[in-house]
Amino acid sequence: MTICVMCAVLTACVEPDDHALRFGLASMPVTLDPRFATDAASARIVRLLYRQLTDFDDQEMPVPALAAWERVDARHYRFVLREGRSPFSDGHRVRAEDVKATYDSVLDAATASPHRASLANVDHIETDGENAVDFYLRDPDILFPGRLTIGILPARLIRDGHPFGTSPVGSGPFELESRPAENRLKLRRRRDGQEFEFVGVPDPTVRVLKLLRGEVDMLQNDLPPEMLAFLDGRNDATVTRARGTNFAYLGFNLQDPVVGRLAVRRAIAMGVDRESIIRYVLGAAARPANALLVPNHWAGDPGLTAIDYDPIGAMRLLKEAGYGAENRPRIVYKTSTDPFRLRLATIIQYQLSIIGIDVELRSYDWGTFYGDIKQGNFQMFSLMWVGVKLPDIFRYAFDSDSVPPQGANRGRYSSPVADALIRRAESAESIAGQAAAYRELQALLLEDLPYVPLWHEDQVFVARPDIVGYRIASDGNYDGLVDVHRVPRGQAGGS
Question: What is the pTM of this model?
Fold first, then answer.
């Protein structure tokens, strides 16, 4: 649907039928259980429903959330739950046993939590009374508190096998009210009873139409630049932007006979014109990426040498690898049905055709697409890592022992050098030592290319003009909903 058609149908505003604030989503969360949340929508909603032991400051260093901590010795951390903490949504107090039960569950191989690998260093957990929890590690880890970001579940319900994925019980600022349909999720803000409804609307044009007609109040990201340009300057919508840390990339099945070859992956990296895509398609709302971490992250590497756009060099690499006009490599490229992501994939498909690679696009609904990626059922795909804080992401995504379900090494990358660098970083006794090892690792990954880095996208929030108080997070989380509210009628513009 074009912008002209959008203008034609916007003949009136529609008043919501209740007092709920509505948030339009490109895809609905897969689960509401923090032990299994890995997709962006699930991770962001889960943060609203559950409280975690630790969080991060603006420099991505861990800070206390549900608990403060002390490092008793190199392998022993004690966490003490804060006084005045919110109870679980069923009224029960959060206790040390709940913390232990949550992490014991994640560490239990039978649970098959995808977060288990990032906590493999935990030897055992003990409680001391109602408020203190002791974590004992196998090896020293000076950043261990930053790994404890899984929402805490009630121990008694874990024992009973409660279905947290559909019936969450947490101590976060929101609680589940209902799930009236597959594409609708209602939460209630606990401090004031304000209702929020998350509405799944995969098509970005329809999402914008619903916003302008008053059927939803807020949108975040997943909108093409031309729609943002259309919305800028209107009196019935506000557009706010902020620098983001989310990392877009191309992923590969390294066991595949085509993309498993480094020469092919390097040719792909040299054949994608990232700068032009960012400028002309993303509306300059992104910055080129050379690694998963942004350069200003404490473990980031601003000195990485970018892989420049070089179609001639890419064709030369393919020729040296034995490919030519009569023997062009063929790749199946999986993506979601989101129109903008499909558009980006189509552009990459065209750019790769120029260097001599035939790409077949296959787009799927989010659940099917993400399921294929988690199961390793792909040759090449494009996705985005969101909410990356600590460099433990490297163990989770690239360590040889992190093949699903133990982690997210979905491409089956295996490198003894990378594994050694991950372990060297994790055993370092100083932040500087960790940063040095992780920078070496990022340089290696740029050589091996289990991912082709694309860009770090900005965060964009769009709302009705009567919606105020939302603060954009660099990782795109929805924490701003804690303070967002609607100003009284007559105090904001609109149609």
Answer: 0.74
